[in-house]
């Protein structure tokens, strides 16, 4: 079932993130389905921590970007989605290549939304699982 209430496309998602942390980190939007968004982040000098691993905060940036975009485009016209809570469990490190994330809704309600995000390395192994809760602000 299609969850989007506003027009959504890869071009739209890329355009709204121009000159933001998302663009600076090299995050790329890859696919929009009926109930998911997929994006990836490179593991490189911009995104690694001193041990050579993808910085956990960068994983959270990717997760929050995916979940926030999902909530924003699944919200009725005029509503705004703002983050209430995010958690992330880092399961496996990544030292090179790309980490890809996919988000799907767990709950789309009138006042809150919850989105699940899974990040995987190029071998398809789970590197991080995250969940974000979004508050839905009604038009003034």
Automatic annotation (TrEMBL):
User: SUPFAM superfamilies in the record, alphabetically?
Assistant: Thioesterase/thiol ester dehydrase-isomerase (SSF54637)
One Pfam match, given by its short name, reads 4HBT
Ranges where the Thioesterase domain occurs: 51-128
Show the Gene3D superfamilies listed in the entry: Hotdog Thioesterase (3.10.129.10)
Recorded hits in CDD domains, A to Z, give: PaaI_thioesterase
Swiss-Prot/TrEMBL keywords:
Hydrolase
What family is reported?
Belongs to the thioesterase PaaI family.
Q: What protein does this entry describe?
A: Hotdog fold thioesterase
Which organism is this entry from? Polaromonas jejuensis
């Amino acid at each position: 079932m299609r969850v989007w209430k506003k027009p959504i496309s890869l071009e739209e998602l890329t355009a709204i993130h121009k000159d933001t942390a998302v663009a600076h980190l090299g995050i790329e939007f890859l696919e929009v389905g009926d109930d998911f968004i997929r994006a990836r982040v490179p593991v490189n000098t911009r995104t690694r921590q001193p041990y050579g691993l993808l910085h956990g905060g960068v994983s959270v940036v990717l997760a929050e970007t995916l979940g926030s975009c999902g909530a924003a485009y699944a919200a009725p016209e005029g509503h705004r989605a703002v983050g209430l809570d995010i958690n992330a469990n880092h399961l496996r490190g990544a030292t090179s290549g790309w980490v890809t994330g996919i988000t799907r809704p767990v709950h789309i309600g009138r006042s809150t939304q919850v989105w699940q995000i899974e990040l995987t390395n190029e071998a398809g192994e789970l590197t991080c699982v995250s969940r974000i809760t979004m508050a839905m602000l009604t038009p003034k």
